[in-house]
Design goal:
- By secondary structure, the protein is an all-alpha fold.
- 62% of the residues lie in helices and 1% in strands.
- The protein contains 66 helices and 6 strands.
- Strands 1-3 form a two-stranded antiparallel ribbon.
- A hairpin with a 4-residue loop joins β4 and β5.
- α30 crosses α31.
- It is elongated, with a radius of gyration of 48 Å.
- The protein starts with a helix and ends in a 9-residue tail after the last helix.
- Keywords: Cell cycle, Cell division, Mitosis, Nucleus.
- This is Sister chromatid cohesion protein.
- InterPro entries: ARM-like, ARM-type_fold, HEAT_type_2, Pds5.
- One of its GO terms (biological process) is DNA repair.
- It is found in: Nucleus.
Length: 1303
């Protein structure tokens, strides 16, 4: 018998038909299964058994006879068999047994545990869908799900471990490869476990819920959906256990401890009813004192309520109301969360928008920067999605953040608004355009009112986002015109022009820079100048970048830079050049800002061509385009080279306004006619000349300017025009205003031609007669003609190489006569005349600074008086003129004292304009701007800080703001209110001085000693104008008290002094004689008298002894009586000093000081004292200066005899030369008036005058050391200008007055 036959016989014996009969015993079946036969044979038996068990029903009576079969299947040799197939078939059979015997399986708990372990081990094969066992394993999964086998696991011991393991198994093996049937059976099994379990332990819940949160949620999205499905099916059973888990999670070791809020959010997404019992816990967390706990709760609820399609706000109304109250939480981080919540509510829940609008608006105005920034971002993002849900009032609040004090808030707002505009600009809905059309204007306003960083941002967002950097050139040009048409007010329009002007100025400056590079010339300070144009200061990074460009040898990059600054370059080439240059100079972080400013990306030939060819539907649109072209033509005239004929044709238009706009453009681009050789028609030329004399004033100005530029020989044309205009000079002529405007333009554009013209005398004569003309009801325009006459005189002065004193005299005459030289005029007209005369003088000084030396102090006093006279409008306009000159450093520093005179102005608008920048205030629609004085002080200090090493010590008087003090004190001392009533010097002086010193002496008080030294120098001098007046000394004492007030509040120490010598203006201050010094000491003001005036806290004033340089008799140390009435001890004075003081007093009584003759006022000038008396005074001062220093200890000795002084002067080095120089000056040969007096520092041999501070109980030696550090030296030597020079200067002006007679 063969081997095959033996196997077949054995198989037939084992697998006989009745081997599975109900009567088979356990032993027989086990014996058959344990037969050591082939693997195939054992599997055949199990397959037959599995098939048989599937046919047995729960209701069949034979199931009771299957106990032997059931017992045999649970044997270890099958359950723990090494063969996978055997184990899998065994598990399948056991699943059938469970189904047959349900709900009471024929196994004990230990056997059931082994069985469920077998199930879990076999189900692992589901992970590999390519496995040969996968189908059979799926059958097992299906059977377990159908028979609900795991319901048995819920009633045995240690069921939590078994149930948890199978849930973990399912989530571990599930993947996207499995079909829906597998997922369904797994859900059925997990649902069975949850529903049948009496208690759901924490590990089991963790195994299920952990897949709802990160990182499992993202790592296995299929498992995440499986968990969601299971929780949704068992929500009622899970509600209680989940609530308990959340409540106790802080005290447990659950894996969900760190993700409990995320779990709650996911549960809400599944079914909000799961949170019904968790809400009280969330309310408690929001009321917690711990900020972190509140923050997490708020963050969770924000996600719950803002989730798409979430109904939590309506389901939990009380919770939502409490949540809304968190908008006002004290923690800024929580307010930031609430702000982000607003964005999602506006975007996804329109029904809840009304509940958060007011809170969001408050967050935009929040005190914390991060909250404001997040609120701006939230509103702009929400508006980009649903602009209809964002009310205009909320957007207006966002717009206001463009003027925020914090630069980061302004930057954030500008970026978000630019993004919003670029997103919605193509939507033509009226409601949308109504809300966003004003954004470009608001952003442009930031250019003029903001800082340099704000200007850089405006340039970036305007070019890159508002116009779109990626758009074609023609599209950008159209958008530019659209933005221009939205600029309704003058402020935004001026900001755009200022922006384009600065851009063009930088381009032209950089072109000069490249020209120097090509020629090999040194750039000098050009790198710093370019940096200042960009940032307002010489920043090292910018200077380094420009220096690197200067040293670059790559001609390709240099060529690219030239292309960027050339308006004829196409836009696409500009972009390419920017990219190449930025890449080549990438090591410089500032290169992008530089290339953005350099590139002609906004205005170029392409854009101008588009604007000129743009079709307009009506005259209004055409006028708007012409207005824009007029501004562009002033900056980029070469871009209109191809539009000359078009503009020329507009001049002959019947519309007067169009003609006016066209002529304005011609006045800008006239030079292009010579470049392009465009033909000039006879009709065009006739129209221009006719407009000069018969057009409107603006037309005449533009036409005259155009004539001066269009023709190759403009002098000939202008001379012919002047002859025609002279014949039209008649007050009765209705076009006389236009004639005067044309003459003013001729004088400005061709001053040499006008000077040499034979018609000059006739014109000047007419102007003088015009200024004499009185205003009448019949001719109300005379005041306008007078103003134009003043402008013509101003232009004439500016065009001359040598200042015509007769013209300047006329301007001062107008000011001195209160705007009414000869004819009677009403107050308003006087104010206007005075304003324009003063403004003309200011402009002349700005352009011809050396002319300021010709203005004597009394004339300057009258010029400054304009700010105190007239209405508010006049004052503000005059301040505007001053401010422009001060900011550009064109005006001398003494003009900075003029704005201080508005400190006591009763008009709040004027006073606020002093503290604000008027030029900005006029343009900023009420926005608070920088103060004139503070801004000027800041500019001068920054300039000095950068250029301190290059500034000559004598030029410091025009740079350092502290040098305003001498001019201000002298200006106040000669105010009419004080000169008429000297007793008002205290009350008036305090207001003015405190107004200025509050801005000057701030911060750490670094200039504290400097200011005190200046005041000491002033107190040791006499007033040049009024030598016997003590007003300057009284005002200096007041200033001392005010400065000490600041020092006391801030505990400043006099530990810093001004580096170098100190100077005083010689035209204002002079050294007094000895007699005058004694008289000044007797009448000086006491600091204690100032206490009520300056509101200075002087509780210990009697303990203090502030000694000024004028108080020579108090040079020794002493203590004043205290409050209690006890007097402090006075240190012994040197006997020598006492004798000198006594002798000095006796001499003063015996020989009274000579009184100086006060200057007699005339109609135009001041008469000074006789020359002989002045010479005597100067000799006395010179003698006082040349006393030997070695014979004095901080004070001047009594006056020696004339012979002794001559001997002493012979011994002193260089004394004769200096004395000779001063004496020669008394005869008219002294040094120039502008050379300042010098206040030298004290030398060691001298005992300087000192300012004592209050003693605080220290030892006497320590007190002396402190006082020596605080010593203030009275000026020792000064270069003095005699009064004869001042008198001669004033007489020179007085002789120039027209028709003046001395009274």
């Amino acid at each position: 018998m063969s081997q095959k036959e033996k196997v077949k016989e054995k198989e037939e014996t084992l697998l006989k038909p009745n081997f599975l009969s109900p009567n088979v015993s356990k032993e027989d079946l086990v014996q058959k299964l344990m037969v050591r036969s082939d693997r195939w044979l054992r599997l055949k038996i199990l397959q037959k058994l599995s098939g048989y068990l599937k046919t047995v029903d729960q209701e069949t009576p034979e199931k009771q006879k299957l106990e032997g079969c059931a017992a045999s299947l649970i044997q270890n040799f099958l359950v723990q068999h090494k063969d996978k197939d055997v184990r899998l078939l065994t598990a399948d059979c056991l699943a059938s047994i469970i189904h047959i015997y349900a709900p009471e399986p024929p196994y004990n708990d230990d056997q059931l545990k082994e069985m469920f372990k077998l199930f879990a081990k076999q189900l692992e094969a589901l992970e590999d869908t390519e496995s040969k066992l996968w189908n059979r394993t799926y059958t097992l999964l299906e059977k377990l799900a159908i028979v609900k086998a795991y319901a048995l696991a819920c009633v045995i011991d240690d069921e939590a471990i078994i149930l948890t393991e199978v849930i973990q198994l399912f989530f571990r093996i599930i993947s996207a490869k499995h079909n829906n049937a597998v997922k369904t059976h797994m859900v059925d099994i997990i649902t069975t476990i949850i529903e049948e379990a009496e208690v759901l332990p924490q590990p089991l819940l963790d195994a299920l819920l952990i897949h709802l949160v990160s990182p499992y949620r993202t790592e296995n999205p299929v498992g995440h959906r499986l968990a969601q499905t299971c929780v949704n099916r068992c929500q009622q059973k899970l509600q209680g256990p989940i609530t308990q888990l959340v409540v106790d999670i802080k005290r447990s070791d659950s894996e969900l401890k760190k993700n409990v809020h995320e779990l709650i959010y996911e549960l809400n997404r599944i079914n909000s009813s799961l949170l019904s019992r968790i809400v009280p816990e969330l309310e408690r967390e929001m009321k917690s004192d711990d900020a972190e706990t509140r923050s997490k709760a708020v963050q969770l609820l924000a996600k719950l309520f803002a989730a798409p399609k979430s109904t939590a706000a309506t389901s939990f109304k009380s919770l939502y109301q409490q949540f809304i109250a968190m908008y006002s939480d004290k923690n800024p981080d929580i307010r930031v969360i609430m702000t982000a919540f607003s964005q999602h509510i506006i975007s996804g829940h329109e029904e809840l928008v009304d509940s958060i609008l007011e809170h969001t608006k408050n967050h935009i105005l929040d005190m914390v920067v991060t909250v404001r920034m997040k609120a701006v971002e939230a509103v702009c993002n929400a508006a980009a999605e649903h602009i209809d849900r964002v009310p205009k009032s909320l957007l207006d609040t966002v717009f206001d953040r463009l003027r925020d004090k914090k630069p980061e808030v302004r930057s954030k707002t500008m970026r978000e608004l630019s993004t919003l505009y670029s997103t919605l600009r193509d939507k033509r809905s009226e409601s949308v355009q109504d809300k966003i059309s004003g954004i470009p204007a608001l952003i442009l306003n930031c250019y003029k009112t903001g800082e340099y960083e704000d200007r850089a941002r405006v340039e970036k967002y305007f070019d890159d986002m508002l116009l779109s950097a990626t758009a074609r050139a023609n599209v950008r040009s159209q958008r530019f015109v659209e933005i221009y048409n939205t600029l309704g007010n003058n402020q935004s329009f001026n900001s755009l022009i200022r922006f384009l002007s600065d851009k063009r100025a930088f381009q032209l400056e950089f072109q000069k820079f490249l020209e120097r590079k090509e020629k090999g010339e040194p750039i000098g300070q050009m790198a710093a100048s370019l940096s200042i144009k960009l940032t307002g200061q010489a920043v090292a990074a910018y200077k380094e970048c420009f220096t690197s460009i200067y040293g670059m040898k790559d001609e390709k990059i240099i060529k690219k830079l030239k292309l960027m600054t050339d308006p004829s370059t196409k836009y696409k080439d500009i972009l390419s050049a920017k990219k190449d240059v930025s890449s080549r100079l990438a090591k410089h972080k500032v290169i992008k800002k530089i290339t953005r400013r350099l590139a002609c990306s906004i205005i170029n030939d392409e854009s101008v061509q588009v604007i000129c060819q743009m079709e307009t539907e009506n005259d209004t649109e055409q006028l708007n385009n012409l207005t824009l072209m007029g501004e562009i033509s002033a900056l980029y005239p070469s871009t209109f080279a191809n539009a000359l004929e078009q503009i020329q044709s507009l001049v002959t238009s019947k519309n007067k306004t169009i003609v006016e706009k066209a002529v304005l453009i011609l006045s800008h681009i006239g030079a292009e006619y010579q470049t392009t050789e465009t033909a000039i028609t006879k009709q065009f030329k006739t129209s221009l000349f006719n407009m000069c004399s018969h057009g409107s004033p603006h037309q005449s100005k533009c036409a005259t300017t155009a004539i001066s530029r269009i023709f190759k020989k403009p002098e000939v044309q202008l001379a012919s025009l002047l002859e025609t205009l002279k014949q039209e000079l008649d007050v009765k002529n209705k076009h006389v205003e236009s004639v005067l405007v044309s003459i003013a333009t001729i004088v400005r554009t061709a001053p040499q031609m006008f000077t040499e013209s034979e018609h000059k005398k006739d014109v000047i004569s007419f102007l003088v007669d015009l200024l004499k003309t009185s205003v009448s009801k019949k001719n109300k325009n005379v005041i306008t003609y007078k103003i134009l006459a003043v402008k013509i005189l101003r232009n004439y002065v500016l065009g001359q190489k040598k200042t015509p004193t007769e013209m300047m005299a006329i301007l001062y005459k107008i000011i001195e006569e209160d705007g009414d030289m000869y004819g009677s005029a009403i107050t308003e007209e006087k104010n206007l005349m005075r304003l324009h005369a003063a403004s003309s003088i200011i402009k002349i000084i700005c352009h011809r600074r050396h002319d300021d030396d010709m203005i004597p102090p009394m004339h300057f006093q009258r010029l400054a008086g304009v700010i105190q006279e007239g209405n508010a409008e006049v004052k503000i306009q005059f301040l505007s003129k001053l401010n422009k000159g001060l900011k550009s450093f064109r005006l001398p520093i003494r003009y900075l004292s003029i704005p201080v005179l508005c400190a006591t102005d009763s008009n709040k608008d004027v006073q606020s304009s002093v503290r604000k920048d008027p030029f900005i205030a006029e343009e900023s629609d009420g926005r608070q701007a920088k103060q004139i004085l503070q801004h000027s002080i800041k500019l001068r200090r920054e300039y000095y800080k950068v250029n301190a090493s290059k500034i000559d010590p004598r030029n410091q008087m025009e740079i350092l703001p502290e040098y305003v003090i001498p001019h201000l004190i002298h200006l106040i001392a000669h105010l009419p209110t004080i000169e008429q009533d000297p007793e008002r010097v205290k009350s008036v002086g305090v207001h003015y001085l405190s107004f200025f010193l509050d801005l000057l002496v701030v911060g750490a008080g670094d200039n504290f000693s400097f200011v005190r030294n200046l005041l000491s120098g002033i107190m040791s001098c006499k007033d040049v104008i009024s030598p016997m007046s003590q007003n300057i000394h009284r005002l200096s004492e007041i200033a001392f008290s005010l400065v000490n007030k600041h020092s006391d509040k801030r505990n400043w120490q006099q530990n810093k002094s001004h580096p170098g010598d100190l100077f005083l203006p010689v035209t204002l201050y002079n050294l007094p004689t000895e007699a005058e010094s004694i008289m000044f000491r007797k009448n000086q003001i006491d600091l204690e008298d100032l206490a009520p005036v300056v509101n200075h806290n002087m509780e210990d004033e009697k303990k203090k002894n502030v000694a000024t340089p004028a108080k020579k008799k108090e040079n020794e140390e002493r203590e004043t009586p205290k409050k209690g009435g006890k007097k402090g001890k006075t240190p012994k004075r040197k006997q020598e000093d006492s004798e000198e003081e006594e002798e000095e007093r006796k001499k003063q009584k015996a020989t009274p000081a000579k009184k100086a003759t006060p200057a007699k006022k005339t109609r135009g000038a001041n008469k000074t004292k006789p020359v002989e008396e002045e010479e005597e005074e100067v000799e006395e001062v010179e003698e006082e200066e040349e006393k030997p220093k070695a014979k004095r200890q901080g004070r001047r000795k009594k006056e020696e005899s004339e012979d002794e002084r001559e001997k002493t002067e012979e011994d002193a080095d260089g004394s004769e030369a200096e004395e000779s120089q001063v004496k020669d000056g008394t005869k008219g040969k002294s040094k120039k008036a502008e050379k300042p007096k010098k206040v030298e520092k004290p030398k060691k041999a001298e005992k300087p005058k000192k300012v004592e501070k209050p003693k605080k109980g220290k030892k006497e030696e320590e007190e002396k050391e402190e006082e020596e550090e605080e010593e203030v030296e009275t000026p020792k030597k000064r270069k003095i200008e005699t009064k004869e020079q001042v008198r001669q200067t004033e007489e020179r002006f007085s002789d120039c007055y027209v028709g003046q007679e001395e009274e």
